[in-house]
What does this fold into?
Amino acid sequence: MCRDTESASGKLIHVYCDHFGFSEKPFTITPNPHFVFLSRIHREAFARLLYGVDSHAGFITLTGEVGTGKTTMLRTLLTQLDPDKYTSALIFNPCMSGEQLLSCICREFGIAAGERNRTGYLDSLYRFLIEQNSTGRTVVLVIDEAQNLEPDVLEQVRMISNLETERDKLVQIILAGQPELDDLLRRHDLRQLNQRITVRCRLAPMELDDTTHYINHRLRISGSRIPDIFSAAAIKRIYRFSHGTPRLINVACEQALVMAWTRETLSVSRSIAAEVIAELQPVDERKGLFSRMYRRLFAGK
It folds into this structure.
């Protein structure tokens, strides 16, 4: 039975989930490791992330277009790290100064800085890293949406990576962001940082086969036992719309299920998928679609 609230909208969600036998909505766009699906491309990137962390590579980057699953992958990675061997922190909103970033890092690691300034934060962080290293623990710092960092803040991140022993890096830093992060790192004034990145992971949209497996995986995790809720033709239509981008797949699938529910059917046909996608298309694209349809219908008349 679907988790719900006492509100009217909650009751509607409950009825919607009950219609398909869901224990929870299968296609929310909130990053949730519970629903993680590793396509071929995602498995390769995930393996490289794990390798980078386990081998103490120091600097790792994860890049991908909007909606390709970067944040979900990062949260999955952090949940799979053994808390007895790893200490980790995730910085999600890096739009801040270098000093603010240091303060945020210390707060996420539970470090009480002696002085609330750049030097105080770095000194406290260094002592923390040395302590963690002495107990055999690996410290992992993940900065998401890193393409939004200013160059001087990225330089501060590089300074953190300088905190090391003669034999090992004291902190493993994962910079994750959109492809603009790669452009940012190619700046001449950031060449020292760029040269330190030894593991680079890239996420790309899924192929049709993985899109099919992805949709069925999320339906199964949500508790539905109804076979073939989405027809093969519907999935193809959703794939063409989304180009294999997980977030767009989720949006289209959620709306298609809602439409199927309102029509009291347990399946999503190609026509339902097409109708939903027509509504999801930007207005200018819809106009182009209608214009092409008009010309095709009345060609030669």
